[in-house]
Amino acid sequence: MLHPKIHKPSDHIPLVIEIGIGEINTDVNIWSIKKDSEEEKNFITSLVQGIQNLDTSAIRSKENLENLVQQLATIFENMWSFHSKLKHIMKHSKEWWNQDCTNCLNKYHESGDLQHWKEFKSVVHTAKRKFFDGKIHEIASSNKRPWDLMNWVKKKSLPVIESILYENCLCNTLPDLWNTLHNSYNLAENRPVNTRFLNKLPQANVIEWPLFSNQEFRDMIAKCSSSSTVI
Asked: Mean pLDDT across the stretch 99-117?
C-alpha cells in the first residue's frame, strides 16, 4: 500500500505491507514410553511374550514368511498402543519431569497450601538429581566418553574481587601482592620433608584408563588451535 501523503520532505513514497499472522500452536503431541519406567518394562515383557508365542515352524514359503512378519508387526503395534502415553511437547517441557512432579503440582493447585508447594519443590529437586545422575553415569560409564560432560560446563562469572589479607595487612598494591605470593609459595623452600607418613596410607587399586579410538581422539581435538596442538 502506497502512502504518498506521509513521505514529507523525502522524495520517496513509503510502501507499507501488512502481513496477517494468526495464532499457531507450536506444541507437539507424540506417543512415547518413558525410559527406565515401569511402562517400558511392561512393554518389553509383553513384546517378549508375544514373540515367543509366534509359530515359526511352518515357514516354508514366501507367503508364510510374510504372514509371520505381519503378525510380528501387529504385536509391536498393539503393545505400543497399549503401553505408550500421549505426551504434549512444548517449549517449557523438561526431560527430568516425571509423574511424581505432575501429581505434586496438581495437589498444590487444588489446595494452594504452602506445605504442598514445599513438597512439590522437594520432588522436583529429587527428580532433577535422579535424572542428571543417570546422565552422568551413562556418559562416564556406559559410552566411555567422559569428555561429553564438558558440554554441560558453561562459562562462569568471576567472583567479586576482594582484598587479600596477609599477616593482618591488606595487600592493595602490586608489590604487596607479589611479596604475599612469594612468601606463601616459597615458605618451605629448601626445607627437608619427611614422607614416611605416606607409608601408613593404604594402597588403592589401580584404575584402568578407558580405551578410546584414534578417531575419538581426533574428534575431541578438532576444535583446538593448530598452533597449540600437534597431531
From this structure: 88
